[in-house]
Amino acid sequence: MNHVTRTQQFDRRYIKRLFTLADKLKNERDESLKGKIMAALFFEPSTRTRLSFSSAMLRLGGSVITMESGQASSQSKGETLEDSTRVISNYADVIVMRHHETGAADRAAAVSNVPIINAGDGNMGQHPTQALLDLYTIQRELKREDGIHVAIIGNLRYYRSARSLAYIIGKYKDMKITFVSSPELQMADDVKKYLTRHKVAWDETEDMTEVVKKADVVYQTRIAKEWIKDDALYEKQRGRYIITRKVANSMKKGAIIIHPLPRIGEITDDVDTSPHAVYFRQVRYGLLVRMALLKTILSGQK
Ligand code: CP
Questions:
Q1: Ligand 1 environment, Cβ below 6 A
Q2: Within this chain, do residues 90 and 151 fall inside the same structural domain, yes or no?
Q3: The sheet that has 63-68: what strands, in order across it?
């Protein structure tokens, strides 16, 4: 079963094939997934992940069925995630699922008859397809795979996309990650131990000033109110790290700024016209990667 629940599961060969397929899908539409059905189960809000997966499926000739949390589904009657998954896996060929609980994708995968794609689980889980599209963005913009210094800034503890990206970076050579955050929001130890085991150089600092001048990639994150349960901590942290035009101008030539989005002020609007700003192109790259992933999982195409 081709479940996609965490980025540690991929190897470089798989990623390379996926990205080569994504390159070919630029401006493409085909009917390769005609007759296939994707179920989009989103128990948390989403704009990009949900719509890009739906758009990807439709561009490949497939169909989409959806279920939301709340009164519209039998979740409101107390149905378990496992039972919902068992039922829906009879209706669809693949399930794309976002859930507020860390580990929800693994729980669904354990009982599903069809592939589960984790579209984000909990505040300390993973968002593997976001990391794939982040990595595709990095590799296509920098035109190399190895020897890249990534600065991950802001909310690192409660940010599944940052966790997934750090894990996937562990697959490459001569990589460096600098974690920039306040002590309360530092990256969790499981990620750091994995990086050390995989010989990825990493360090951490509270000050972003010097690191943004040296990094090849500045990965900005959102101080996510919905994931930081302590209101006082949220109020203390929001606005702590902001990429302004002045900060962007201090970056070295060819370096890029990426962000999973949505942003809520942590990159100011005047950065959008900076040559370093890549975060809206990143959205387009995401569509291609998700098309390639669905094609790989559902039609076996590599
Ligand atoms: N990047 C991301 O996951 O965005 P959404 O929450 O809008 O899907």
A1: 46-50, 120, 130, 260-262
A2: no
A3: 63-68, 37-42, 94-99, 116-121
